[in-house]
């Protein structure tokens, strides 16, 4: 295949995966709507699963907290309506298909360049790759933590990101700039997108924590005992899952932002640190997440306070990822990542 054909294939794969993500999102909406008329057993709101408390008490001992998180975080299969189980399986299957098409779009985007290069030379490609990592992380953790409750959030989020990516950030394939032609680019960006995927999943969970906590404070359990929020894991399970994803992503972000980033900057521009806006905001993001983990480890900050800090960290991450390129693009040596003033719409035949 020619490079032009690979570009067309990448565009078609993006359109295809967006369509399948949309179908998966609809399937998960039907899944949770089917459970609205079936009240959740009381023990579900306490442990995340019917009968889980007895399981944890009998087998976990002193490490019961870990066992509670590792147990399925939704009602047991025999307690869920058959319609929920069916559409849940359909939604996950569609998400797997969408992820495969998403991966194809990333790979063929790199093959479309002449010479062949890594597929993250601009904001469109960064966003395309980063959203794929979010889906991949969700699928890898789905069985271990029974993440069916996260399914509509992930599929909806990735769908919106792809729409924005295509409509506002799309750029034709071009060769890498000289400053990007370095093996440190591969190491730096791979670490950054993995950390971003982990922070995003943790941020989603922190947001759900705050929403459910407010819903419970307002007596939502008595008004809607079978809805989506009622079927979410208990608050301490959401809090602990968010903590684990952030604890996983933070050292990877440290490696990306404070180690490989400066090394790459030295090879590209002859200095390790230059107070570039993107470098500064990458450090701000690191400080916020360091504060989040430090507060949890030393001061025992959990629940609402920890969730708020996590969302502040996600906001700084997204601003560093997108906002810097729009507001400081002309004054940043990372301006290659900013879209052109007149963005083009993705065409499948171009």
From TrEMBL:
Any single biological process term in GO: cytochrome complex assembly
Amino-acid biosynthesis in keyword set: no
Mode of membrane association: Multi-pass membrane protein
MF-aspect GO terms: heme binding
InterPro entries reported in the protein's UniProt record: Cyt_c_assembly, Cyt_c_biogenesis_CcsA, Cyt_c_biogenesis_CcsA/CcmC
Keyword Cell wall biogenesis/degradation part of the UniProt annotation: no
Segments passing through the bilayer: 12-30, 90-111, 123-142, 149-170, 185-211, 248-267, 279-295, 307-328
Pfam family, one: Cytochrom_C_asm
Keywords in alphabetical order: Cytochrome c-type biogenesis, Membrane, Transmembrane, Transmembrane helix
Subcellular compartments: Membrane
GO CC, one annotated term: plasma membrane
Domain Cytochrome c assembly protein: 120-326
Entry-linked PANTHER family: CYTOCHROME B_B6 PROTEIN-RELATED (PTHR30071:SF1), HEME EXPORTER PROTEIN C (PTHR30071)
Name of the protein in question: Cytochrome c-type biogenesis protein CcsB
UniProt organism field: Nocardioides scoriae
